[in-house]
Design goal:
- It contains eight helices and seven strands, in the order ααβααββββββαααα.
- By secondary structure, it is α+β, with helices and mostly antiparallel strands.
- It has a domain of 193 residues: SMI1/KNR4-like (3-Layer(aba) Sandwich).
- The longest helix is centred in the first third of the chain and has 11 residues.
- Strands 4-5-6-7 form a four-stranded antiparallel β-sheet.
C-alpha cells in the first residue's frame, strides 16, 4: 500500500533516502507540495527472480537500493500567483518495472521495425566518450527512469548476456534516440538525481546541446546543488572584469612622448655639418642677385 506522507513529516529512513533534500526544497521560495511516495522494500526473492529471468546480475548498489525501497518517486510543485505548477520529479522504477528496453515495443504488427533497425556502427567510442550502447544483442538495456517523456535513463550492460554486475553503466537516451553517458555506477547517478532536484530535462545538461531555454529559466530560479565545470567556466568568463584600467583611463593619463625632429632643409642654403645653413656669397637665387 503506497502512502503519501503529509507535508512536514520527517521520517529517519526517508531523510536518509533523500539525503535531506526535502528541507532544502521546503525552504526554497515558491516551492510547495513536496511529496515522497513511500514504498516498501523489495524482498530478496524478488531480486533473485529478476536476475534469473533476465540472466543479469544486478550491481550491489542497485540491490541495496531495492532492499531499502522498491522504487522511488518524489515530486514538488511551484506556486505562481494563484496557480500551482508541478515542476520537480525524481523517479526510479520498481524492480517489476525494470524491464528490458527493446521488449517494450510500440508496434504490434509482425515484422514491425525495432530499435535494432536503428543501429548505426558509424558512431563508435571516442577519446572522451566510452563506447555507446547498442540496441541489438551486444548490449542489454533496462529502463530506470522514463523522465516524464523527455527521454529514458537506462541501466546498460555493455557485454550482452549473461550480464555481469561490473559491466553495468548508466546512460541517457534522448528523444532522438542518441546515447549520452551519465555515470559508471547507480550510486553516482542517484546523487545526480537528488542534487539536480528533479528539475525538468536536467539530464540534457550532460548532452552536447544542453537544456532547453524554458528549462534553463527553472535552473536559474532553483539551481541544482552541484556544479558543471563547463557552465562554471562559462559563467566565470561572463562576469570576470576584463577591463584594463591603464587602457580605460588612457585619455586622462597621457604620457608625453617627445617628438623627434627631422632634418630641416632651408630654402636658401644647405645645412652644414654642425651649424646653420651656409650663406656663401657665391650662392645665388632668382630673387637675390649677387652684387659684385
Amino acid at each position: 500500500m503506497e502512502e503519501t506522507p503529509p507535508p512536514g513529516c520527517s521520517k529517519p529512513h526517508l531523510e536518509k533516502l533523500t539525503l535531506g533534500i526535502t528541507r532544502i526544497l521546503e525552504s526554497s521560495p515558491g516551492v510547495t507540495e513536496v511529496t515522497i511516495i513511500e514504498k516498501p522494500p523489495a524482498e530478496r526473492h524478488m531480486i533473485s527472480s529478476w536476475e534469473q529471468k533476465n540472466n543479469c546480475v544486478l550491481p550491489e548498489d542497485v540491490k541495496n537500493f531495492y532492499l531499502m525501497t522498491n522504487g522511488f518517486h518524489m515530486t514538488w510543485s511551484v506556486k505562481l500567483d494563484e496557480h500551482t505548477i508541478p515542476l520537480g520529479s525524481m523517479a526510479i522504477n520498481s524492480i517489476a518495472k525494470l524491464t528490458q528496453l527493446n521488449q517494450s515495443s510500440v508496434y504490434s504488427l509482425p515484422n514491425a521495425p525495432t530499435l535494432a533497425d536503428l543501429e548505426d556502427d558509424a558512431l563508435e567510442a571516442s577519446e572522451n566518450q566510452p563506447e555507446k550502447p547498442h540496441f541489438d544483442s551486444r548490449s542489454v538495456i533496462f529502463e530506470l527512469d522514463p523522465c516524464n517523456g523527455n527521454g529514458k535513463v537506462c541501466l546498460v550492460y555493455k557485454r550482452g548476456k549473461p550480464a555481469l554486475a561490473q559491466d553495468a553503466e548508466i546512460w541517457f537516451l534522448d528523444r532522438a534516440l542518441y546515447w549520452h553517458f551519465l555515470t559508471d555506477s547507480f550510486t553516482a547517478y542517484y546523487r545526480l538525481l537528488i542534487t539536480h532536484l528533479g528539475l525538468p530535462q536536467w539530464q540534457y545538461a550532460f548532452t552536447s546541446y544542453g537544456i532547453s531555454p524554458q528549462a534553463k529559466q527553472w535552473f536559474n530560479m532553483y539551481k541544482p546543488i552541484t556544479y558543471n565545470t563547463d557552465l562554471l567556466a562559462e559563467e566565470t568568463n561572463c562576469f570576470v572584469n576584463k577591463l584594463d584600467p591603464s587602457k580605460v583611463f588612457k585619455s586622462k593619463n597621457k604620457t608625453l612622448i617627445p617628438k623627434k625632429k627631422g632634418p630641416v632643409q632651408p630654402a636658401g642654403g644647405q645645412k652644414g655639418p654642425s651649424g646653420p645653413p651656409s650663406t656663401s656669397k657665391s650662392s645665388s637665387s632668382p630673387g637675390n642677385p649677387v652684387r659684385k
